[in-house]
Design brief:
single chain; 544 residues; alpha/beta; 6-stranded mixed β-sheet; flat
Length: 544
C-alpha cells in the first residue's frame, strides 16, 4: 500500500536517518520504536505528508486514505463534540450535496443530446455508485459508540468542544480519524491522553476494525497487544521484524549474539591467516599459498556487529529521611467545583514505604486529590501529612513548566544548593545531558528530554514522599524501565498517578480507584485489580 524508498533526513549538520526503505502492507500493525530523538515522529510526519525528507520518496495508491494523529493538536472551537466527531463524514456529506445539485440541474436542462449533458450523467452515476456503496445507516450510532469508547459520557456529546481540555480535544480528533476508516492510520503517542479503560477500548478497536496501523507509543503493553511488526529507528538506520516489540527484543538479542560469534570466529581466522603470511612471506616453497591467502583477505567481506545504543539514564533516588508511620491520612475528603462534584468522603491512610497507584477515568479526581494533598487547592474534610514528611511533587504538566529560555545546566544550577552544586555535571551526565547537551536551551528539547530534566530537579534534595502524576508521558521504553527500577528501589512512600499498566505492574502494591464520585481502596496490584474489574463488568453485563 505505502512504499518508502531510500529516505534520508538531515538537518543542522546531523543525519537523523539515512537511506531507509520499507513497505506498509494491508493489515500491517506496526510499532515504530526507538529512543527519544531517534526520529520516530519525523518519520511518521513524512509518511503523513506533512513533512518532506532530504532525499527519498514515499508513494501510495491514489485512492489510499491516510489519517494522522500528531502528538500535539487542538480541535477547532464552534461545534459540539458530536458535530466535531461527525466531521469525519464531511466528505460524504459534500458528495451527497453534489449528487443532489447535479440531479437538480439534470431535471431543468433540455439539451439531452449534448456532450455536457452526457458528462453530467456520467459524473452523477460515478458519484452515486461510490456514495451508495458506503453504509450510512449507522452513522449516528458509530459516532456515539466511538466517543463513548474514548471516555465521553452521553451528556458530553452536545457540549461545545471549547469546554474541554487539550487531552479531551485530542480524543475528539482521534474519534474523527477512527470514524474515517482509513487505509493507513498513523498514531503518535495516542495513549498519552487516555485513561486505562479507553486504552483497552482502543486496543480492541484497532485489532478488530483497522486496516494498516503505524503507532508510536511508550506504553509497552499497548504496543505488544496491538502490533504484529516492529520497526526500530536507531543509529540512523532501521531494523524491521515481523514480531511484537517484546518478541523483537529477544530476536534482536539472539541476532546480535550470533553476529558476535561469527565476528569473533572471523577475526580469529583473519589473525591466523596474517600470522601465516608473516611467517612464510619470504619462503620460496610457500609463495603460492601466501599469495592465495593475501588475495583471500583482500576479497573477504567483513562481518559487522550491530551497534548498540549504550546511552542510558543512571537513576537512583537518594535515601529518604524517616517519616512518621502514616505519611498521608485522609478523613472525609471531598471536592466540588460549583455544581460539579468530583468526589466525596474519601477516607484512607497510606503507610510509610507503601507504593500506591491512583487510577480511574480522566476527570474523576486523581490529579485533584493530589493537589489537595499538596495543599494547592482547598477541600472538604481533613488531610494530614505525618511527622517529618518531606514531599517532592511531579505534576502532570511539570515538563512544560520549565523555563524555555534557560539552558539545561542553568535549570539545575539555579535551584541546586549546598554540596549538590559540586555534583551538577555528574548528575547531568547520569541523565544523558553530558558535554554539549548541557548547553542546550530547554526550548529545543524533546518531550522525553524535558521530562528527564524535570525528574532530575526532584532529586536535588532527599524526600520521603514522592508524588508523581503521569511521569512516563514522553519517556522512551528504556528510560521508563530505568525509572521503574529506581522507584522499586526507592525506600520512601510513593503515590503514582498513571494509566500505564506495564509501568504500574509490580510497582504499585495498592490501588485507589476513582469513579462515580468515590475513591475505593483495593489491596492488590494493578493486574489483579484490572482482572477483578473485568470480571465484575462481565457479571454486570450478564445481569443486564
Amino acid at each position: 500500500m505505502v512504499s518508502v524508498d531510500g529516505l534520508t533526513v538531515e538537518f543542522g549538520g546531523t543525519t537523523l536517518f539515512k537511506d531507509i526503505s520499507f513497505q506498509i502492507n494491508e493489515n500491517d500493525r506496526i510499532a515504530l520504536m526507538g529512543k527519544n530523538g531517534a526520529g520516530k515522529s519525523t518519520l511518521l510526519k513524512i509518511l503523513a505528508g506533512v513533512r518532506s525528507a532530504t532525499r527519498g520518496s514515499v508513494s501510495a495508491p491514489k485512492d489510499c486514505v491516510v489519517a494522522y494523529l500528531p502528538q500535539h493538536l487542538m480541535t477547532e472551537d464552534g461545534r459540539t463534540v458530536r458535530d466535531e466527531a461527525a466531521q469525519a463524514f464531511a466528505h460524504l456529506m459534500e458528495t451527497e450535496a453534489e449528487i443532489n445539485r447535479i440531479n437538480e440541474e439534470l431535471t431543468v436542462r433540455t439539451d439531452y443530446e449534448s456532450d455536457d449533458y452526457m458528462a453530467l450523467i456520467e459524473k452523477v452515476s460515478e458519484l452515486s455508485e461510490k456514495f451508495y456503496a458506503i453504509d450510512m445507516t449507522h452513522f449516528d450510532e458509530d459516532v456515539e459508540k466511538t466517543l463513548f469508547g474514548l471516555g465521553f459520557k452521553r451528556e458530553d456529546l452536545d457540549r461545545p468542544t471549547s469546554e474541554f481540555s487539550g487531552g479531551w480535544r485530542m480524543r475528539i480528533e482521534l474519534a474523527k480519524l477512527l470514524l474515517k476508516s482509513p487505509d493507513v492510520l498513523l498514531l503518535d503517542e495516542p495513549t498519552n491522553h487516555l485513561d486505562i479503560e479507553s486504552i483497552m477500548w482502543l486496543e480492541e478497536f484497532i485489532k478488530t476494525s483497522s486496516k494498516a496501523v503505524v503507532v508510536i507509543s511508550h506504553d509497552r503493553r499497548f504496543v505488544d497487544s496491538i502490533t504484529t511488526r516492529t520497526i526500530e529507528v536507531t543509529m540512523g538506520r532501521i531494523y524491521d521484524y515481523k514480531a511484537s516489540y517484546s518478541h523483537y527484543l529477544e530476536l534482536r538479542k539472539e541476532r546480535r549474539e550470533q553476529q558476535m560469534k561469527q565476528y569473533e570466529e572471523q577475526q580469529k581466522m583473519i589473525q591466523e591467516t596474517k600470522d601465516f603470511i608473516e611467517r612464510f612471506k619470504g619462503t620460496y616453497s610457500k609463495t603460492l599459498q601466501v599469495q592465495s591467502r593475501v588475495k583471500m583477505l583482500e576479497k573477504l567481506e567483513l562481518i559487522e556487529v550491530d551497534e548498540e545504543d549504550t546511552s542510558a539514564l543512571r537513576l537512583k533516588f537518594p535515601p529518604s529521611p524517616r517519616s512518621g508511620t502514616y505519611p498521608v491520612q485522609a478523613d472525609g475528603v471531598g471536592k466540588a467545583y460549583g455544581e460539579k462534584r468530583v468526589f466525596s468522603n474519601a477516607s484512607f491512610m497510606i503507610e510509610r514505604g507503601e507504593k500506591v497507584a491512583f487510577v480511574g477515568r480522566n476527570g474523576e479526581g486523581k490529579s485533584t486529590l493530589v493537589k489537595c494533598i499538596m495543599n494547592e487547592i482547598d477541600h472538604e474534610g481533613t488531610l494530614t501529612l505525618g511527622h517529618n514528611v518531606q514531599v517532592a511533587y511531579f505534576a502532570q504538566n511539570q515538563a512544560s513548566l520549565l523555563d524555555e529560555n534557560l539552558t539545561v545546566f542553568q535549570t539545575i544550577d539555579d535551584i541546586a544548593k549546598g554540596d549538590v552544586r559540586l555534583k551538577i555535571r555528574d548528575m547531568l551526565g547520569a541523565f544523558m545531558f553530558g558535554g554539549e547537551e548541557s548547553t542546550k536551551k530547554v526550548k529545543v528539547l524533546s518531550g522525553g528530554e524535558r521530562t528527564r530534566l524535570a525528574i532530575l530537579k526532584l532529586l536535588l534534595e532527599p524526600v520521603n514522599l514522592l508524588i508523581l502524576d503521569e511521569p512516563t508521558n514522553h519517556l522512551d521504553l528504556k528510560t521508563k524501565d530505568i525509572l521503574k527500577q529506581a522507584l522499586q528501589d526507592y525506600d520512601g512512600t510513593l503515590i503514582l498517578v498513571s494509566h500505564d499498566r506495564d509501568f504500574l505492574a509490580g510497582l504499585a502494591t495498592k490501588v485507589y480507584e476513582f469513579g462515580n464520585g468515590k475513591v475505593r481502596e483495593h489491596l492488590c496490584g494493578i493486574d489483579e485489580f484490572l482482572e477483578n474489574k473485568r470480571l465484575a463488568s462481565l457479571q454486570e453485563i450478564e445481569r443486564r
